[in-house]
Amino acid sequence: MTSPERDFVTAHLEDLHADLDAWLRIPSISADPASAPGVAASAEWLAAALRRTGFPVVEIWPTPGAPAVYAEWPSADDGAPVALVYGHHDVQPVDPLELWEHPPFEPTRVEGPDGPELHARGAIDDKGNVAFHLLGIRAHLAATGRTTPAVTVKLLVEGEEESGSPHFAALLRARADRLACDVVVVSDTGMAAPDVPSAVVAMRGLADAEITLRGPAVDLHSGSFGGAVPNPLHAMASLLAGLHDDRGRVTLPGFYDRVRPLSDRERELMARVPFDEQAWLAGPAASRVATGEAGFTTLERIGARPTAEVNGVWGGYTGPGHKTIIPAEAHAKITFRLVADQRPEDVGPLLRAWVEARLPEGIEAEVHTPPGGVSPCASDLDSPAMAALLAAIGLANDCDPADVLFTREGGSGPEADLVDVLGAPLVFLGAGLPTDRIHSPNERVLLPMLYRGAEAAAHLWRELAAVRFPAR
Residue 20 — φ and ψ, nearest 5°? Predict the structure, then answer.
């Protein structure tokens, strides 16, 4: 099956390759202050690329952290809907560098089992997902013979997503009039598999915390004092061991009070997604066994159930040899993934009460929960915007829209801020795969997925133009 959109994308693949090769060479690591010039250079590159593509309005918006890029291409049609594309141009750190097969900021083509791959930090998360829109909007114009898009297309590409988007909500509030839209198209996700057309319909939220336990005022000799004074590391080990019960449920009282149960329909839709658990364990999970909350499938656990994970524990002496001490302090970092109706600001008080109730005598605790966090978000499965998205994905993948499956993203991002501030519904269009090693060494993108993403975007603007959105 072919279409004018596909024909244009196929004829201009080298444009997409050239864009990505140039952009991916810019080390835009937002978490590393030393990389601030790279993040700024990344924003400048994207702004220039958007102008070259044809966007008549392109601006770099500074924040107290890293800059965001805004672009707008108004439709000439009266009353045309407004779509806002969200993505980010910053990337994760590359550590451990020695595990990379190719330098992380030297894009490298590799022939893989499913087709050509491009390896580099940011190849899919999220520069690849943003770059396909440059080709997609050109394909839309060429296929329809238009000089302006069928919908007004806006882009907001932030520079701090990989650092928790600390200034994003404030940016949205300050620029809400410029960002007003009928629908938000999030391009920071992907699909279930190369041959499984699908759309993300929900993302989990996030709350993080750091626990410090203090015992003796100083490190003590373990021979002179061991067995006679409380050991903070022992207390921390016991505390963390009790974070889940024997059915894998988080033990904080009240943690599940606001969790919206999965409906039978939602569970049936998730069960339709092909999932080979053994292949998942041997591949992207790199684990021996699947585990978690009893009564739920692995896909439900990682996409639709809340979690608590210990991210790091430290204290005492960890250098070479041994140092026989009872440490004065022990520390742990914990993150909680949240689902529909949970709020990140509720987690801190629950965690503090739980820790205080479990402290042994002689141990003091400090629980730090940074303000903010990330709220969960979800799409309306039955909205006209979702129907337009499914039609576009179906056309790009040669399938019926009814055969496009729904998936849930276990990770977190600032999408809930977009909903809260702009009041617009969300749909998700991405080209990533679970096997793309995002946040890990040897991140890659399967190039045919980007090609399909560009085509789907080209179809989407035409499909959304036919939707009658409520008046803003």
Answer: -65, -40
